[in-house]
Amino acid sequence: MSDNVWLVAGLGNPGPGYAHNRHNVGQMVLDELARRIGAKFGRHKANATVAEGFLRPGGPKLVLAKPNSFMNNSGGPVSQLLNFYSLGADRLIVVHDELDIPFDTLRLKTGGGPGGHNGVRDIISAAGTPDFIRVRVGVGRPPGRMDAADFVLRDFSGTERTTLPILLVDAADAVEKIADDGLTAAQQQFHSPA
């Protein structure tokens, strides 16, 4: 069964005060995916809210998970969910914000270091491997001398909010493409030409 199941973890901070922050864009993507597969989020014993559904009848099953922990402690819930569903890290897709990518841009990769992202760092530590897929959603660099931590804990600007729905749809499309056709096919579709 697990060969057609994907755990998709959307990173962010819990609670309504953080819901629209740049740091929570991974969880926003999961809301779009849950809407598509007609799934509702419910509490899970792994300190996460989880929604499950199939991309289509007979298609891949997605387990959408939002850790209830703060971003920097995402690893525990994600690791527990991998164990609960008997999945290896090769069946994990982590959707997260990325400062080093321009806003409205996606980059998909597997493996490598955390790139300064503490949520990804904690998942690597808890899972014992960096070898999982990341859907990196570009939020851009902070303006001027603004601290990066302050920037990601702010809501998207008014201008960004007009484009954000398209970005969330693109990121959800990328997750679906990975689940259906693999990472390489998804990279070919979603990485813009250099």
Features:
7-stranded mixed β-sheet; 194 residues; 6 helices; single chain; alpha/beta; Rossmann fold
Task: Spell out the blueprint of helices and strands.
Blueprint: E1 5-10, H1 25-37, E2 42-44, E3 48-54, E4 61-67, H2 75-84, E5 92-98, E6 106-110, H3 118-127, E7 133-138, H4 148-152, H5 158-181, H6 183-190
Parallel strand pairs: 1-4, 1-5, 5-7
Antiparallel strand pairs: 2-3, 3-4, 6-7
Helix pairs in contact: 1-5, 2-3, 5-6
Explain what you see.
The protein is α/β, with parallel strands linked by helices and 194 residues long. The protein has a single domain, classed as 3-Layer(aba) Sandwich (Rossmann fold). Helices cover 36% and strands 21% of the residues. It has six helices and seven strands, in the order βαβββαββαβααα. The protein has helices at residues 25-37, 75-84, 118-127, 148-152, 158-181, 183-190; strands at 5-10, 42-44, 48-54, 61-67, 92-98, 106-110, 133-138. It has a seven-stranded mixed beta sheet, sandwiched between helices.
Tell me the name of the CATH class: Alpha Beta
- Order of strands in the sheet with most strands: 2-3-4-1-5-7-6
Question: Radius of gyration in whole Å, from Cα?
Answer: 15 Å
Helical percentage: 25-40%
Quick check: average pLDDT?
94
- The H/E string reads EHEEEHEEHEHHH
CATH superfamily: Peptidyl-tRNA hydrolase
Integer tally of domains: 1
Return the structural class.
alpha/beta
CATH topology: Rossmann fold
Q: Span from first to last CA?
A: 38 Å
Q: Architecture, CATH level 2? A: 3-Layer(aba) Sandwich
Tell me the total number of β-strands. Answer: 7
H/I helix tally:
6
Strand content: 15-25%
